[in-house]
Amino acid sequence: MSTHASPTFIRPLREAGVTFVLALIVFGPISGLVLDGYSIEPHLGRPLLIASIVAAGRLLFGVLEQTPFGQKLLARNARKASGGVTVARGDEYKLLYFVVPLVIAIGVTLPFVANKYWLGNLILALIYVLLGLGLNIVVGLAGLLDLGFVAFYAVGAYFLALGAQYLDIGFWTALVCAPMLAACFGAVLGFPVLRMHGDYLAIVTLGFGEIIRLVLNNWLDFTGGPNGASVPAPTIFGLEFSRIAKQGGTPFHEFFGLEYSSDYKLMFTYLVLLVVVLLMVRFLTKLRQMPMGRAWEALREDEIACRSLGINHVIVKLSAFMMGAMTGGLAGVFFATYQGFVNPTSFNFFESALILAIVVLGGLGSTLGVIIAALVLTLLPEVLREFADYRVLAFGALMVLMMIWRPRGLIRPKRPHFAPEV
Amino acid sequence: MSEHLLEVRGIDAYYGPIQALREVSLHVDKGEIVTLIGANGAGKTTLLNTLFGNPRALVGHILFRGEEITRLPTYQIAKRGLALVPEGRHIFPGMTVEENLVMGTIPVGMEHADEDRQAMFELFPRLEERRDQRAGTLSGGEQQMLAIARALMARPEMILLDEPSLGLAPLVVKRIFEVLREIAGLGKTIFLVEQNANHALKLADRGYVLVNGVIELQGSGKELLGNPQVRQAYLGGH
Ligand SMILES: Nc1ncnc2c1ncn2[C@@H]1O[C@H](COP(=O)(O)OP(=O)(O)OP(=O)(O)O)[C@@H](O)[C@H]1O
Ligand SMILES: [Mg+2]
């Protein structure tokens, strides 16, 4: 008991002081000097406020650290820090029974309380969750560095836009077919790169992403080129989410006798997207316990071992590319629906880099980490909207710091324990 | 027809323009322990990998249980009851000991996984103590045991081992060879590639000596141990 008697405040106070100064340095230029046209306006109160909050947090943490409860937490973390991948055992899932319904409940109620602006942001955030999950299969699980992931995203989005234009395809058809088409593109990319690793793979995939974008940009007759293509509003049971329905159709708001509002479309998109994301998470968790998911991770860990165990590495690599591409295509459909319009600039390399950043920050291979990282990286910039000019700078700094302090990402990858109980 | 479990007839293998194996012929009968010894770069690893389809034998035939496997893809060969413990162990470092063992069942499915894992833990008590430890943190000897156990999880009829004693202390090497004898006692056929000619030839029923991609000598383990040429080249010349 003597080890944690009454907590001392001296050390935490000193640390909080240092934290305050550091936070000032970090946030000062970003939030204190706001670009206004060509002049810079000083807003010195804001960095002080942010730094105080950060320092208070550090102080609280410093004190908490000394209580018995904090010590227990620390000990647990220290134990975890020793290894790389930890393996979930059964009892950790008990918490999930409580947390998962809660998250779902929050997720479902959000669109009814959020305003249009935030609803849009939530949709984008979920789209990036989906993209992150998809790329996580390829990079995080199978260990294949893919810098052209945005290609599949584009395929999904353009499938809906062009499908609607030429074949009269709707949202639901695209939701089923676009992932399949994207998976085919995944296979097209997968075959030539079967024998490649690391840098070479990265360069080829990068090229692939650019090729798709350039084709979309330059094939004027078919894709509309830089002008892009419009995407029809989604339907539910034949009811359209648009102000005036196409001939013969009924708009959603008329059917229910509501005032027209584009919010319905957003809500609808959000809810379907939420369901898709939840199903995807469930599916991926299951997959990781099955031979295919295990084979992906085995391939990342040691290719020679895989061969000697008779794992068909062609199938394993292709399936990783295809599964990832499929998820990317799915995300593309939602993106197109949300925007109501697609053009090639949405699918440039920066997008691939952002998705990769989500996967890396999330902790390569961790589903939960990827979800958190996607939400943080897409919602945080909105929260910091005013500092948008510094977004990319902060983003880069964050990446560098993460690689120094948490090289394995936010959340330590955790595999579902797949050995059957004895 | 021959009744050999594994028969290799005059195979040549190349790495690009370089010929690594020249007309190699050998056979292993059911229940035998056969060893292949040779100096660095003689082509021992190449031979094992060729049996597993990579690189492919350009000339000649490889028969396992009387069936031609020369042109089969690697994963098909593993399904037919041949297991390879690759040189340098190659366990999955990020997975636990237990998970590594489960990975070994891939060619045959999970049906007997529980039972076989238990059997492996009996054969290697060290692994049972460390079942939840990440394999990358095991000692070299433990990793080698794990690599062998993982290969056995596929219930192979025959197991190919590439230098299991590589880089291990004499005491651990001794233990590995004891284990190999136990595995042979379980009815497995063993084809062992080794630099440690002394141990290998003492264990083996028969042996082959590979020099620059060519089989130079063959005979029973005892004969080869007594052969002055072998003593000169591989046993320190006493
Ligand atoms: N992937 C490769 N590409 C080109 N040459 C190779 C390759 N692998 C092996 N070789 C060459 O083939 C020859 C036989 O190599 P191998 O690895 O089979 O020898 P080894 O008998 O297993 O040697 P050691 O006892 O050192 O493991 C060597 O000359 C080697 O340089
Ligand atoms: Mg070798």
From TrEMBL, chain A:
Signal peptide: none annotated. Pfam families: BPD_transp_2. The chain crosses the membrane at residues 16-35, 47-64, 95-114, 126-159, 171-193, 200-220, 266-284, 318-341, 353-380, 387-405. The keyword Membrane applies. It is a multi-pass membrane protein. Its main location: membrane. One of its GO terms (cellular component) is plasma membrane. GO terms for molecular function: branched-chain amino acid transmembrane transporter activity. Keywords: Cell membrane, Membrane, Transmembrane, Transmembrane helix. It is found in: Cell inner membrane. This is Amino acid/amide ABC transporter membrane protein 2 (HAAT family).
TrEMBL record, chain B:
InterPro entries: AAA+_ATPase, ABC_transporter-like_ATP-bd, ABC_transporter-like_CS, BCAA_Transport_ATP-bd_LivF, P-loop_NTPase. The keyword Transport applies. It holds the Pfam family ABC_tran. Keywords: Amino-acid transport, ATP-binding, Nucleotide-binding, Transport. Residues 6-237 form the ABC transporter domain. GO terms for molecular function: ATP binding; ATP hydrolysis activity; branched-chain amino acid transmembrane transporter activity. Belongs to the ABC transporter superfamily. This is Amino acid/amide ABC transporter ATP-binding protein 2 (HAAT family). The lineage of its organism: Bacteria, Pseudomonadati, Pseudomonadota, Gammaproteobacteria, Candidatus Competibacteraceae.
